[in-house]
Design brief:
Layout (H helix, E strand, L loop, with lengths): L3 E7 L1 E2 L1 H18 L4 E5 L11 H9 L4 E3 L11 H6 L18 E6 L2 E9 L10 H12 L6 E6 L3 H11 L5 E5 L9 E2 L5 E3 L4 E4 L8 H10 L12 E11 L5 E10 L3
Parallel strand pairs: 1-3, 2-11, 3-4, 6-7, 7-8, 8-10
Antiparallel strand pairs: 1-12, 5-6, 9-10, 11-12, 12-13
Length: 264
């Protein structure tokens, strides 16, 4: 058995309340979970839709190693050039060829390498390339350098997330589902040694509808009008997982669900 590394994987950051909670509590979380690597999904950080270069830099300066995203990454055009230039800002790997940016990276700390792969689902989302086929190809590339691999699967359907996790079981260290902003309670380590959770949740306002103003959400549903969703201005919940990985085999040893209420 090799050294044990702890990867802190945190859910979608929603607007200013989410950013505020993240920046205030991240150092505490890193200490509490003895985190060696920190991966955070930032696709909702800018007022609920996308991420800006300024927020991206705040993420890095506060100790985040890799920023994953999803379908909302394209809603802030000013971030597109950073997708091309910044190796640690990811967009889903399974977008068609020619789309700006990259879907995986390998980072190294104290001689230990960790691969991070970002994929997007196809059920009830825009039509992208197959996450199974594209993901398999990316995992093989990453394995040339390390067996320690985390996948952020940004997807809507639980059955698609669970299927991909089983498909990758034994090939990756962990698959963390994102996108729905609703934390599930099914964290586990599968037979092949891959840690899994259908959705790790969000860092966003608690008294809300998936982080957004509940009044607008109800009005959208009752009137069917295309009203613009706005981030709720309430204290946030901090959700995610910490996965302990054997650095020699890449197998997960432990997965702990994080669900912390912030009063700020």
């Amino acid at each position: 058995m090799g050294a044990v590394i702890n990867a802190l994987i945190l859910g979608d950051v929603i607007g200013q309340p989410g950013c505020r909670a993240l920046f205030i509590h991240l150092k505490e979380l890193i200490k509490d979970y003895s985190a060696d690597f920190v991966v955070v999904n930032g696709e909702n950080a800018a007022d609920g839709f996308g991420i800006t270069p300024e927020i991206m830099q705040q993420f890095y300066s506060n100790g985040i190693d890799v920023i994953t995203t999803g379908n909302h990454i394209w809603q802030r055009r000013e971030i597109l050039s950073h997708l091309e230039l910044n190796d640690k800002l990811l967009r889903p790997e399974n977008y068609p060829p020619g789309v700006v940016g990259k879907g995986f990276c390998i980072i190294e700390k104290q001689g230990i390498k960790l691969g991070v792969l970002n994929l997007q689902g196809r059920t009830r989302l825009s039509e992208v390339d197959c996450p199974f086929r594209i993901g398999d190809r990316a995992v093989k590339k990453i394995k040339k350098e390390t067996d320690c691999i985390i996948v952020d699967f940004h997807a809507e359907a639980p059955e698609e997330k669970e299927s991909l996790a089983i498909y990758f079981d034994g090939k990756i260290s962990a698959l963390a589902g994102t996108h729905t902003h609703v934390q599930t309670a099914d964290e586990r380590i599968m037979d092949g040694g891959t840690a899994y959770m259908t959705d790790i949740g969000m860092i966003g306002p608690t008294d809300s509808v998936i982080g957004f103003d509940k009044r607008i959400a109800i009005q959208r549903s009752t009137t069917q009008l295309p009203l613009k969703m706005e981030v709720a201005d309430n204290p946030a919940v901090i959700q995610g997982v910490c996965v302990s990985i054997d650095s020699e085999t890449g197998k997960a040893i432990k997965i702990v669900r994080i669900n912390k209420i912030s009063n700020l």
